[in-house]
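Notebook entry, structure prediction.
Reason for the run: the old model in the group folder had no record of what sequence produced it. Starting over properly, with the input documented here first.
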Amino acid sequence: MNANEATLLYADEYGRMAETYDRVVAPRFEPIARAVVELLAPKSGELLLDLATGTGVLACLLAPLVAPQTVVAIDLADEAIGVASFRAGNAGIRNVRFEMMDARNIVYRGQLFDKVGSNLGIPNLGYDRTFYEVHRLLKPGGLFVFSEWDAKPSFAEGVFGEVLPRYRTTTPSKELAQLREAVALNRSDPEARALKDPAAVRKKLESFGFADVRDVPRTFVTRFAGLEDFLGFEAGWGWDERELREMPPENRRAFEEEFARRLGDRMGPGGFDETWTIHFTVAHA
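New structure, fully documented this time:
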């Protein structure tokens, strides 16, 4: 499997889970999107591009601030674009243009946009092409802001990643087997890992002509009502949903028991908190 095949598989899974993702994941990511908006500081009349918009949280936050100008929001998952369109329509937002498009190959003319933003959407594989495209699309001096996870996972996320492989099915469906290959490539690729290294990101951006590149780390605390709530959140992504769904019942019970045991006294009557460290990269064209 090559990087492009893995990226397309990821997009298919995001699309398959778009409605679930919008219900259980997107609300927890909205505070991060608001931080992207704060750093972008959009103004009325500016033309903005939202890369890998997903279900449209960032685009819908930006749109009222740049009105009457339009926000262009792109994503490779067609079904996610559909959910994003419903989000905008239900909120009465009319100045967002959603388009199915690859963030590594953006078919707009150069120096068109005032600012470009992305919330946890930069593709792990091939993001150098995304950086090239963003620099090409921005007006001179234009602003690029995007958020990305820290290299060290939060506590429960780390436990999930350690415990799951011990209990997952040994007879995966064809779809799950392919996804495992894509996930392994995504997690082992040196360039993909470098996306979570602010120094490496700065170097890469500067190689494409960006200036004044800075890293703005912030932490966000989100509460999960319990183990079921957390696993529902994890299942908002297609690959984890397939892993949990195909896990044999006896393995699932053992998996949840070990997971709860590893959480220990972090789990209280009201659930537990996860602290996420997010890096916001700010750069000028």
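Summary: Residues 26-40 form the longest helix (15 residues).
The old model has been moved to the deprecated folder.
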